[in-house]
Amino acid sequence: MSATTSSTTQTRMPRHLLSMADLDAGAIRTVLDTAAQMHDVQKREVKKIPTLRGRTIINLFFEDSTRTRSSFEIAGKWMSADTINITGKGSATSKGESLRDTVRTIDAMGVDAFVIRHGASGACHQVAGWVDAHVINAGDGTHEHPTQALLDAYTMERRLGSLEGRHVAIVGDLAHSRVVRSNLISLQRLGAHVTLVAPPTLMPSGIGAWAERDGFALSHDLDGVLQGREGKAVDALMMLRVQKERMSGGYFSTAREYTVGYGLTRPRLADLVERNPEIVICHPGPMNRGLEISADAADAAQSLVLDQVSAGVAVRMSVLYHLLAGEDTPTVGTTTEGSAA
Ligand code: CP
């Protein structure tokens, strides 16, 4: 590690990042602290450090993505790794090749890491058992999206300071959300209180027992939570996308009914900001403007949506660094030309 990271709590990193559960509180802190250093690279004229020179990273995306795929690619490139994008449509999987054969084929070429997005929950865990390379979960079905949770924590901390004792409300389509599962783990490990808010039809099955075991709150009353009637005032509000593509049945009668009950509408935003002008609003994206979040809320001064996107590159650089770089590799201490940065 570079001397520049000596202030962090260095915890042994896992070989793969498949779930937020792979990172204990110390490891999360280390990743977030390194991300802060990596964020500085974004401000440089020459966005290139030699940290992962000679490493090859495969971005293997079987589901669509704008933010995650491009930020992993940028992260790898800025750290001088060779990054290659493969999607389901352009690969031999469209000819019927299995996931196992696909990843073992690419692994045999000697690559160092797979960044995988797949529609099946648990796909990344399976791949980790089939390949020698490191595996990073970039979103698997409705299971987890750990780097999203890390960038969410990083972004909220930048605005709010420590999340210890802070109250984060996560609102929306929880049933189909991999983001909520990863965020629950990371936010609780960072000491935040979490309340999940959704209509009964969009609560994940078994959530009651899970909440009891892990000590987070559940509510169907968004206004009650936002007005502090159900406990501590909210410091951060995370709105989740209604995942229409994963919905086969009717989870709510009309879009209007959903928005009235659970959308961050203009009147709700006004009320919220009047109560607490320091509140922060997050959304992992992509947003359904006018459904779960109004345009006013998405673009409000309290909105961190673009900060989350910006943090995505830094956090993914940090994750790639901690999984792939050797112990003695400097983080951001040198440029590709070898001069001090
Ligand atoms: N938040 C997120 O995963 O966005 P993408 O689907 O664009 O990667």
TrEMBL record:
<feature type="binding site">
    <location>
        <position position="67"/>
    </location>
    <ligand>
        <name>carbamoyl phosphate</name>
    </ligand>
</feature>
<dbReference type="InterPro" id="IPR006131">
    <property type="entry name" value="Asp_carbamoyltransf_Asp/Orn-bd"/>
</dbReference>
<feature type="binding site">
    <location>
        <position position="145"/>
    </location>
    <ligand>
        <name>carbamoyl phosphate</name>
    </ligand>
</feature>
<feature type="binding site">
    <location>
        <position position="148"/>
    </location>
    <ligand>
        <name>carbamoyl phosphate</name>
    </ligand>
</feature>
<feature type="binding site">
    <location>
        <position position="68"/>
    </location>
    <ligand>
        <name>carbamoyl phosphate</name>
    </ligand>
</feature>
<dbReference type="InterPro" id="IPR036901">
    <property type="entry name" value="Asp/Orn_carbamoylTrfase_sf"/>
</dbReference>
<comment type="similarity">
    <text>Belongs to the aspartate/ornithine carbamoyltransferase superfamily. ATCase family.</text>
</comment>
<keyword id="KW-0808">Transferase</keyword>
<feature type="domain" description="Aspartate/ornithine carbamoyltransferase Asp/Orn-binding">
    <location>
        <begin position="165"/>
        <end position="323"/>
    </location>
</feature>
<comment type="pathway">
    <text>Pyrimidine metabolism; UMP biosynthesis via de novo pathway; (S)-dihydroorotate from bicarbonate: step 2/3.</text>
</comment>
<comment type="function">
    <text>Catalyzes the condensation of carbamoyl phosphate and aspartate to form carbamoyl aspartate and inorganic phosphate, the committed step in the de novo pyrimidine nucleotide biosynthesis pathway.</text>
</comment>
<dbReference type="GO" id="GO:0006207">
    <property type="term" value="P:'de novo' pyrimidine nucleobase biosynthetic process"/>
</dbReference>
<dbReference type="GO" id="GO:0044205">
    <property type="term" value="P:'de novo' UMP biosynthetic process"/>
</dbReference>
<feature type="binding site">
    <location>
        <position position="117"/>
    </location>
    <ligand>
        <name>carbamoyl phosphate</name>
    </ligand>
</feature>
<dbReference type="GO" id="GO:0016597">
    <property type="term" value="F:amino acid binding"/>
</dbReference>
<dbReference type="Pfam" id="PF00185">
    <property type="entry name" value="OTCace"/>
</dbReference>
<comment type="subunit">
    <text>Heterododecamer (2C3:3R2) of six catalytic PyrB chains organized as two trimers (C3), and six regulatory PyrI chains organized as three dimers (R2).</text>
</comment>
<dbReference type="Pfam" id="PF02729">
    <property type="entry name" value="OTCace_N"/>
</dbReference>
<feature type="domain" description="Aspartate/ornithine carbamoyltransferase carbamoyl-P binding">
    <location>
        <begin position="15"/>
        <end position="157"/>
    </location>
</feature>
<dbReference type="InterPro" id="IPR006130">
    <property type="entry name" value="Asp/Orn_carbamoylTrfase"/>
</dbReference>
<feature type="binding site">
    <location>
        <position position="285"/>
    </location>
    <ligand>
        <name>carbamoyl phosphate</name>
    </ligand>
</feature>
<dbReference type="GO" id="GO:0004070">
    <property type="term" value="F:aspartate carbamoyltransferase activity"/>
</dbReference>
<protein>
    <recommendedName>
        <fullName>Aspartate carbamoyltransferase</fullName>
        <ecNumber>2.1.3.2</ecNumber>
    </recommendedName>
</protein>
<dbReference type="GO" id="GO:0006520">
    <property type="term" value="P:amino acid metabolic process"/>
</dbReference>
<feature type="binding site">
    <location>
        <position position="286"/>
    </location>
    <ligand>
        <name>carbamoyl phosphate</name>
    </ligand>
</feature>
<dbReference type="InterPro" id="IPR006132">
    <property type="entry name" value="Asp/Orn_carbamoyltranf_P-bd"/>
</dbReference>
<dbReference type="InterPro" id="IPR002082">
    <property type="entry name" value="Asp_carbamoyltransf"/>
</dbReference>
<keyword id="KW-0665">Pyrimidine biosynthesis</keyword>
<feature type="binding site">
    <location>
        <position position="241"/>
    </location>
    <ligand>
        <name>L-aspartate</name>
    </ligand>
</feature>
<feature type="binding site">
    <location>
        <position position="95"/>
    </location>
    <ligand>
        <name>L-aspartate</name>
    </ligand>
</feature>
<dbReference type="GO" id="GO:0005829">
    <property type="term" value="C:cytosol"/>
</dbReference>
<feature type="binding site">
    <location>
        <position position="178"/>
    </location>
    <ligand>
        <name>L-aspartate</name>
    </ligand>
</feature>
